[in-house]
Amino acid sequence: MENEHDKSKCLGKLERCYNTLQYFRTRIDCYLYEPSTMALFETKAYLKDKIRKLAAANETLLDYLKLTNELLPEQYQLVNFHIKETAELESDVIEYTNKSRKSVQQSLNR
């Protein structure tokens, strides 16, 4: 029973990660955050690639957990690592959007 509880918690966390990644993708693609410098362009490309990779990993983990009845310690660790990676990505996305906004504001003030 404990294993089933852990599995449902992991599924819930992965579904929240999926929603978060979709939000990041939408936010990065928003016209308000178009890169105005080469550094911002490179950062945006990096973030989009990272989002794509995390979304694929998230889908793989979700599919696995939905098919199995048993949550192995390795899968539990993978889920927690994925959650950590998504949280780290969040700070990178926030940093990028803040830099993009500052860059746009500086352009408008010229």
Report on this structure:
With 110 residues, the protein is mainly alpha-helical. The chain contains 3 helices and no strands. Helix 1 runs antiparallel to helix 2, helix 1 packs parallel to helix 3 and helix 2 runs antiparallel to helix 3.
Sum up the structure in keywords.
single chain, 110 residues, mainly alpha, 86% helix
Overall mean pLDDT stands at 88
- Tally of helical runs: 3
Shape, principal axes of CA atoms? elongated
How far is the first residue's CA from the last residue's CA?
A: 63 Å
Low-confidence stretches: none
Strand content: under 5%
Radius of gyration: 17 Å
Structural class: mainly alpha
> What is the H/E string?
HHH
Q: How does the major sheet shape up?
A: none
- What's the total number of strands? 0
State the share of residues found in helices, binned by percent: over 70%
State the gist of this model:
With 110 residues, the protein is mostly helical. Helix content is 86%, strand content 0%. Helix 1 packs antiparallel against helix 2.
Helices and strands, with pairings:
Layout: H1 2-29, H2 38-67, H3 73-109
Helix pairs in contact: 1-2, 1-3, 2-3
